[in-house]
Amino acid sequence: DVVMTQSPLSLPVTLGQPASISCRSSQSLAYSDGISYLSWFHQRPGQSPRRLIHKASTRDSGVPDRFSGSGSGTYFTLKISRVEAEDVGIYYCMQGTHWPPITFGQGTRLEIK
Amino acid sequence: QVQLQESGPRLVKPSQTLSLTCTVPSDSFRSGDYCWSWVRQPPGKGLEWIGHIHESGRTSYNSSLESRVTMSFDASTNDFSLTLSFMTAADTGVYYCATGDSGSKIGHWGQGTLVTVSS
User: Fold this and answer.
1) Which residues contact B39 (CB under 8 A, 6 or more apart)?
2) In this complex, do A92 and B107 lie within 8 Å of one another by their Cβ atoms?
3) Which of A94, B42, B55, B81 is within CB 3.0–4.6 Å of B93 for a Cys-Cys bond?
């Protein structure tokens, strides 16, 4: 199974400041088509996850442009250019390249300082 | 935006079988190269992929649950279902249905349903 390791696990951020979460995979996520099927999700308390980024760097429809994804191979990053109050919650990376199983990172809890 | 809705029992006794259904409204159903997944989340913990069924009917399960899981898809009703047998307290959690293209696998989620295993 592909192990997804996120860091940090807890991320206190001041409003208006940038934030960055990393996600490492135990194997390269590059599929035979050259695409890394790495997604980022945001889960607010009591809500279902919402996808922000897919294919490592493609922002989903309606996602603010302060969110960006980058990376390839085994190292990926989610960046928030300026954190807003609504960004609190848990962020998960997920790989869909090597399956079964599809695997998630442990989650990173973002909170406002 | 695909709107998914889980339905099924909220309380299951130990050793019983859980049956959940995910309904996709016909006006938001996407036909093509899609996977229909189940994901669960124990209280206060992270996300665990249970398995998925492709529109072709091909299934793929997490090996940790494979002996207890069955998924099916009904193209006539746009429903897909999950059965998980021999439930224990460790199976307590929120169960989500989700869907996405066959590349990224998961894009849209249901609101989730909390299932508690208790006698």
Assistant:
1) B47, B48, B49, B50, B95, B96, B97, B98, B106, B109
2) no
3) B42
A36 near B CB under 8 A: no
Burial of A37 (0-12, 13-18, 19+ CB in 10 A): buried
Mean pLDDT, chain B, rounded, equals: 92
> Which tens digit of pLDDT belongs to each residue from A30-88?
999 999 999 999 999 999 999 999 999 999 999 999 999 999 999 999 999 999 999 99
The CA distance from A74 to B92, in Å, is 32
Kindly identify which residue of chain A lies nearest to residue B102, measuring between CA atoms: A96
